[in-house]
Specification:
Layout (H helix, E strand, L loop, with lengths): L24 H11 L6 E5 L2 E5 L6 E5 L2 E6 L2 E5 L3 H7 L5 E5 L2 E4 L3 E5 L6 E5 L4 E4 L1 H11 L2
Antiparallel strand pairs: 1-2, 1-5, 3-4, 3-7, 4-5, 6-7, 8-9, 9-10
């Protein structure tokens, strides 16, 4: 994607023009992000305190027993958002859903083990091991270019 910025004092407010040959998933995602009024802050609670979580620090986000949790190097946090809401707020180039109950940060992956039949084992930077469900294996393989 090419980005061009022109500074012109004739414009009193920013104007964005997006030129493309076709409506792609990338263009749709970009338009959705630009038109959102929802703040992209993710807050988690730990020890009766609410902390703003930096997406770069997130290792994994998972649902368990009807609740959603985020794991960072500082520990685990309970979140009030649902997984689909978090998926919308997080950068799709950095975070990927690996099952109906888990999203991982690709930058926090130690390695992927493809030796398991029908699934992929994921080792995360904090030592956690998790698995890609069969439904998401093809998506992960496409991201990895295999």
């Amino acid at each position: 994607m090419q980005v061009e910025i022109k500074i012109d004092s004739a414009y009193t407010e920013p104007k964005l023009i997006l030129m493309t040959a076709a409506m792609t998933e990338e263009v749709s995602h970009l338009l959705k992000k630009l038109s959102e009024d929802v703040p992209q802050i993710i807050a988690g609670s730990k020890d009766e305190k609410i902390e703003v979580l930096n997406p770069e620090d997130l290792i994994r986000i998972y649902a368990d027993a009807g609740k959603v949790f985020a794991v960072t190097d500082k520990g685990g946090y309970a979140l009030r958002l649902r997984l689909y809401e978090l998926e919308e707020r997080l950068d799709a180039g950095q975070f990927v859903r690996i099952s109906n109950s888990e999203i991982i940060n690709l930058r926090k992956v130690g390695h992927f083990d493809l030796s398991f039949t029908g699934t992929i084992c994921v080792s995360l930077s904090n030592g956690t091991t998790t698995y890609v469900s069969r439904r998401y294996v093809s998506k992960i393989k496409k991201i990895l270019g295999i």
